[in-house]
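Dear support,

I submitted the protein below through the web form. The confirmation email said the job was done, but the results page showed an empty box. After a refresh the structure appeared. I'm attaching both so you can tell me whether what I see now is the final result or a partial one.
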Amino acid sequence: MTEEGYEYGELALKICHLFKHDVWVCRVSAGFYGTTYGWKHSVKEVIEPLQVAYRAGLRTGDIEYSIVSTMCHVNAFVRIHESHVTRIVSLIYMHQQCS
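What the results page shows now:
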């Protein structure tokens, strides 16, 4: 099931690029790189494609999926730096408990 989802995502991206459907690049990229791509690749590898998706959405007027791409980008960033984020949240929590 995971493999099929990944293959369909790759196929969708290839179709977008083959037919130069810039309008769909943002939507397909947000869906593929924001979810499925991470099943087989490092989270660090999704940052650039999600930035490209964001810019494609702005260029074509697809603000909704530009925002989705940005949310996926932020999620990937947090997952990459999870230990730092966890430490900061713990420090904030401890500071609030002492106050």
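Response: this is the final, complete result; the empty box was a page-load delay. The first helix runs from residue 2 to 18.
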